[in-house]
């Protein structure tokens, strides 16, 4: 049975919705696919539901091919498992919490690691039951601070989340690879360009973790890639460490006056003006060592002041620092933090003074001192002398000061070398469309998922977690496939295969259109039939372009000559086709 | 690809779950269909998800046949529309409420009338757009006080809810009938016995309202039916009103002493002992008029004391009274209520005293007096005389007292006449599986859904609401289709068409089983294949009986003779079939 526009729940809109920030949101609303209910919360209209179902069907097929079995968990879950894992707390304001009439705490689950772990614990108890991969396609909730960009970042959204259970690390690697391969097949079938980037593991501390990013200028993530094939998100980028240099024969450090040097730039200018290098090479920001004071709130409640030393031509990238200190929360040091450490002379902080070491666990202040990996032994620096209006020149790492360790705190820049030697990197923007992640034994340990191994010994299961944002993918496909007139769906996810328009008022034309529709349906095409009797061809064309079904068949005056027009939405090509050959022309 | 038990997420259980109150719950958990997550909240395992998908597919087909279009709303909805309709308040403790990080109020929707109304208001504006029927299959939430009986009454449950929009009452009737017909087709295809009962409209006050009840001893609803085809739920049953009797020539009422008559039974005994009827017929409870004092809390905050008079052989049925006074909330009068009405002499209340009328809007007390429809003019009663230890005999309705109206307050009993003259009724228990309901213009009025009619005039749309409990239906089918050994699914919703067992250890048998499975799959049967190599036939048989696929094929020693056994789960019949004829035997 064709879907007839005379009797379909659809209203295309001429005006853009006021709240729409991105093209996909604007067009999906205007073309009658979705409708906003609250910030980040949408209703699905018939057209949108069809596209979503097609994406889900492709995901289901590839999950089945990967040996995963479908289950379905509630969105409403009790607090206890999330309390045990610690996430009830660590999610902070990011989730919806509620309680029932008896006062028991619940949440609307943002992801389901805990309850999948408990389900397997409930039902399985032997290595013979493993490996196991189970998944669901389910509506999830996050109380985003700024739900924006339509379906790209919603508060209610559909995800496919899969979880694997293995007894060994090798098993986990195989399960991980099976899901990773399935993801590649899924995104390929959906026609979605993707880059697989090494991802930071964040709070969960597993082993391998990769994100599938779709390169797009509206992406929320910045990632790093080289022409030679390296890709990573900014948090996971590893700085190439220079060779250490011998400091034999380097002169001793010298403390020099440096009034009015509140910035690296003013310090470099003063150095070049007052203290030029003997060999005439100008000082640059890269010759200075910038020391940034941060404070870390540790999960146990302790607050720690930390100093990070990095070349003066680099900035601290907080996203990278946050990962380095997780699960602690890191931020700038406050006046109160400085007050507790009078040994730090603001504006002139450095690891060394003429009275001895200033920074480092063993120093006068006892403050932990971490440096950028580029600050290798033997490098010489201009840095604060811990005396007002004085800097020290020629301070040598490994000789005059020793850091407590290195930290990936500096920003990543185009031209930085890729850690795998594949050449300089560039920065690009991307949107996360999938994530594969070796959880390891964290959840199994805290929730007690153990099985008997071949020797009858209880062993903790190792797990992986694999997510695809279904509704986000739909929005990204819409974002990538449109023109000034509307959506242009790829055939794999289009709401219909063919959009047939009957134009004009001639009953013979409408009768011919019915025949075309019947022959298309007989050939198993899914047909949207614009049989509205009183609209002008222009309105019907505009609606067809807005809705974006890939193939459009215009049944009009040509019927008298036995022809209809077949219109390719993507290319705009139109060609006359004899009525009897429409099915073949669309084949 | 067959589903192989060597690699499927399934664990059958030997033990009944401790919390299971009904057979369906017990078997669905034991056979690996569902798993409890919290009271009234379940996860769906692969087998359960398959049955649910089959039920949903049947519902979708019939909704399409009824001309309804599928949409999908969020579960998480903002407070405002429900505030406007008044239901944010009237739901009381029955819904889950929550708020987001900004403090805005939300609910987990228990039903979606408000937002469907607003969606149509948003998109449509003309009579030309109507009629319209839209539906969703979606997870709903109710914070039940006592979630019980597994899926039969959950806190998270799946419903199909449809809504119709029409411009005229005739249109609504047609839309209602289309959904009602679809429901009959759906329940017939699911093999579910149903009775359509007239239902009370409850709070919403529309026109037609019918429930589809499935007769079952575990049903939560009592309904009334006659052999002649009448059916109604108890709340909607209408008492047959006796003809009024002439009171010409009846004697005047007499006040008589009646000490120690705290109950109707003691009153009747005293009457028969002390004041026998002149004609010798004994007094019975039916000769007495019982007056019950209730208090109604009206929505505007007013509290009203009301007295209901009914024959002494009847009891007040609170469910019926609640409907009569909705949206007010009715309950027994408290001591405080009595204290405000000293004119009521507890234990001896009646509408009349020697000083004049005691009950009724125009009486000394001013208390509204409503009577059972059987208390017609001319009937004679023994009732309280409003004096301690005294009753009045021969008090005649319509002569000695006049009520303010009638009320359907009495219980319904087997043998009561059906209001349509189709004979005496019997009482049966049933479970609601569907509800079709003419909402009328309530939601359209409060939410402002108007469209232009043919004359360009704005008119308020009239609506219907149509619900089917998907997960409840699944449980009811399980409840009705099982035996001592497990589930016995009807073919229309079975998780698989055929369950093939390979028994023993002979590789030739397993190879033959692979061939049988391949030929069944080629014939488009959906096959569950028990290919587990090391289990005894007894374990495999027991699992097959527990899981309940309707047709089981046992591939075993008979393979040497070219035969397999085909086992009908429902009848228990087993027959040998040549391997090459298995497909035909199952056809």
UniProtKB/TrEMBL annotation, chains A, B:
Where the record annotates domain Aminoacyl-transfer RNA synthetases class-II family profile, the positions are: 40-490
The catalysed reaction is: tRNA(Pro) + L-proline + ATP = L-prolyl-tRNA(Pro) + AMP + diphosphate
Q: What is its EC number?
A: 6.1.1.15
Is Transcription regulation found in the keyword set? no
Q: Name one Pfam family in it.
A: HGTP_anticodon
Family assignment from sequence similarity = Belongs to the class-II aminoacyl-tRNA synthetase family. ProS type 1 subfamily.
Q: How does it assemble?
A: Homodimer.
Give the protein's recorded name: Proline--tRNA ligase
